[in-house]
Amino acid sequence: MSIQTTALAKKYATAFVNLFDDELNGEVNSRIEQFVHFLLHRRAALVFLGLPHIPAEKKVNVVEKIVDKFQLPESIKKIVRLLISNNRQMIIAQVLQQILMVYRKRHHIEIFDVKTVEPLDENQKDEVRRFLETQVSGTVRCDFVTESEIIAGLRAQSNTNLWEYSVAKDIRNLKKLINC
Amino acid sequence: MDIKNTDLVSLLEKSLQDVGQEKLEEIGIVVQVGDYVCKVHGLTRAVYGELIKFEGGNSGIIFNLGEDFVDIFLLQSAIPVVELEVAKRTGGVFKTPVSKEMIGRVLNSLGQPIDGLGEIKHEELRPIEGTIPSVIERSPINKSLETGIMAVDTLVPIGRGQRELIIGNRNTGKTAIAIDTIIHQKNQNVICIYCSIGQRQANVARVVNYLQEHGAMDYTIVVSADASEAVLNRYLAPYVACTIGEYFMDSGHDVLIVYDDLSNHAIAFREMSLLLRRSPGREAYPGDIFYLHSRLLERAGKLARGGSLTALPIVHIQGDDITAYVPTNLISITDGQIFLDTRLFNQGIRPAVNVELSVSRVGSAAQTKIIKQMTKALRLELAQYHELLSFAQFGTELDEVSQRKLARGAIVVEILKQAQGITYSCIDQALMLFLLNEDFLDKISLAYVHSFVRQFVSYVKSVYQEMYDALTKTQDMSEENRIKLREIAKEFSLLFVEPSA
After folding, report:
1. Where are the domains positioned within chain A?
2. What is the 3-class SS of B60-76, one letter each residue?
3. How many helices (H) and strands (E) does chain A have?
4. How many angstroms separate the CA atoms of B223 and B27, rounded?
5. Contacts of A174 in chain B (CB under 8 A)
6. Residue B313 contacts residue B330 (beta carbons within 8 Å)
7. pLDDT confidence of A14, banded at 50, 70, 90?
8. Which domains occur in chain B, in start order?
9. Which of A35, A51, B71, B307 is such that its CA lies 20 to 30 A from the CA of A76?
10. The CATH classification of domain A3-105, taken from the options 2.60.40, 3.40.50, 1.10.260, 1.10.520
């Protein structure tokens, strides 16, 4: 995805959130995420949308059916229709991604990828979530994954923040020290 | 550096004791990597010029702040930066180490030694773009910085705290003038900094060797960003050199800094601007190319509390055209320029200083009294000579007055010729000019004028040492001194034998 495409997608997303902010919530957002995932992992669908000899109405019909499958609100259908009519069907996924990002920024929601070597139990997960919420002073959503590369400890990373206390970090610092 | 397993364990143990002290770090994610430049998403609160550290060990400086992305130029070319790598804020701008131990050392553009003589313990870290001394903090330039080059000291004198541009075509002796000036600062209590920008490593090595041979490395620091280094290093080098100079100036020292050369610096900045997709202007330079050099050269000056920073920026031109973009900018920023002429250079007049196009706007106020007394009509005589010379070349029949002016001009040109590596003190120069002013050179064959004046200076130094010392002490060519010197010159004229005779 080029920088220019991102900028364009962000403009659509900002306009969308300005109009339909109240229609977005945690549940809708997770369905949008699933839809984005579907589009990004089925490139053939996007290729179909890009074929010039298929009329725009048919493309809209197909996309609307997919949108219905994901139980997305009417506003999402509107933005998808708009993009197809403007021949910008290739950036549908990016626009939806940007919608989520703009929404999260406005509502101070941060998504952290939390990496640990061993899986955490629910209590530990809550503790980590609470800790991160105090750190960022906002709402935090955590996606927990196990990662052996950190050796021991914990690494929580969002798009703009990082909290890490791990052996991998110490080794990295040691490496830098040796290189100096 | 040897690290034992036990050291690693103890380090890990120590770090485990610090649990809970880790803080949330502001980060961004690398989304695009190019030639020494990368685009990072995130870093929403980063500031312009901030130092950014990458998880892979590299670091860089922010040069563009966008709504979603920041552009970062990388400091190390050897450490790769990969897509999706984490870039962390440091919260501070790029700083260079400064220390008195740097004297006599060769440094890179990050202030680290590259001469293999061991580490330098830095006394402090200074931001490379500090506050420029205000008007109140500055004092007028009133003390001369002797270059030891007669053509410069007599015609385009430089004062301590002045910015004098050295401008000329390739191979006209620009670096030679700067290096000779550094060599002449021995025992003058001036710390010299030679900053090489975008030059070949062999050239830098040659300069360092030359300085060592002349014992100039005892008071000189060399900062080098050679042509092979990342564009950011070439951009940073003069700022780092200036910061080191300011450190010494702030401690009351007189500092001389040579930027060799700012054409390469401008080219490096142009490269960076084009990579950042900034709009190119004249000669593809960005709009703020003037500010690039003005903010660097404005840092030179003389402080009221003591200490000065004299800047000798060098710029090369093509085809003797001083109206190119960067040279005209630099001419307007600096307090004068020494223009080196290819035509004069090829005629064997070295240093090839073009008197008509060279000027020093503030240096005459700083010129020593004795030189001022001796050079009253020198510039005029030379100008008249060059004017008449063009007529003489056409074979025009000239009157007696013009012929006399031509003869005298030829002597002046001969006196001002000076070999590289040989510098004269102001008293030596005054004695040579005395011979010219008192017409002692009129009867000497042109080919022997130079040896006559040099031998005369040695004669005064050795036989009439008290006279020489008195002149050094008073720096004044009083009437009494003139009478005595006339007698000495007469005596020497009888002793001097032209080799042909």
Report:
1. 3-105, 108-179
2. EEEEEECCCEEEEEECC
3. 8, 4
4. 32
5. 3, 8, 11
6. yes
7. very high
8. 26-92 (2.40.30.20), 97-367 (3.40.50.300), 373-495 (1.20.150.20)
9. A51
10. 1.10.520
Residues of chain B where predicted confidence (pLDDT) is lower than 50 = 1
**Long-range contacts from B184-190, C-beta under 8 angstroms, 24+ separation:** B184/B146, B184/B147, B184/B148, B184/B149, B184/B423, B185/B216, B185/B219, B185/B256, B186/B214, B186/B215, B186/B216, B186/B218, B186/B219, B188/B146, B189/B253, B189/B254, B190/B145, B190/B160, B190/B219, B190/B253, B190/B254, B190/B255, B190/B256
Task: Answer yes or no: are the C-beta atoms of B331 and B159 closer than 8 Å.
Answer: no
pLDDT (0 to 100) of residue A180: 62
And the tokens for B471? 């002149």
Q: Which pLDDT band holds residue A1 (cuts at 50, 70, 90)?
A: low
Kind and range of the H or E run holding B202: helix B201-213
Nearest chain B residue to A101 by CA: give it.
Answer: B68
Interface test with B, best of A162, A170, A173, A176 (most B CBs within 10 A): A162
| pLDDT number for residue B76 | 87
Q: What angle do the packed helices A92-106 and A43-50 form, to 10 degrees?
A: 110
Q: CA-to-CA distance for A52 and A48, rounded, in angstroms?
A: 9
Longest dimension (CA), chain B: 96
Task: Write the CATH number of the domain with boundaries A108-179.
Answer: 3.40.30
* Residue B383 to residue B379: CA distance in whole angstroms: 6
Give residue B8's pLDDT.
56
CA atoms of A48 and A51, how far apart (whole Å)? 5
| Residue B361 bears catalytic tag | yes
Contacts of B62 (CB under 8 A, 6+ apart): B43, B46, B47, B48, B49, B50, B52, B70, B71, B72
Q: Identify residue B439 by its one-letter amino acid code.
A: D
Task: Decide if B55 and A172 are in contact by the 8 Å CB cutoff.
Answer: yes
Question: B392 in contact with A at a CB cutoff of 8 Å?
Answer: no
Segments in B105-173 forming alpha helices (H):
150-155
Which residues in chain A are closer than 8 Å to B7, comparing Cβ atoms? none
Q: What is the ipTM of this complex?
A: 0.79
pLDDT digits over B404-422, tens only?
888 889 999 999 999 999 9
* Residue contact A159–B68, C-beta within 8 A: no
CB–CB of B274/B268 below 8 Å?
no
Place of tokens 């330098």: B120
State the pairing for strand pair A161-166/A153-157.
antiparallel
Chain A touched by B401 (CB under 8 Å): no
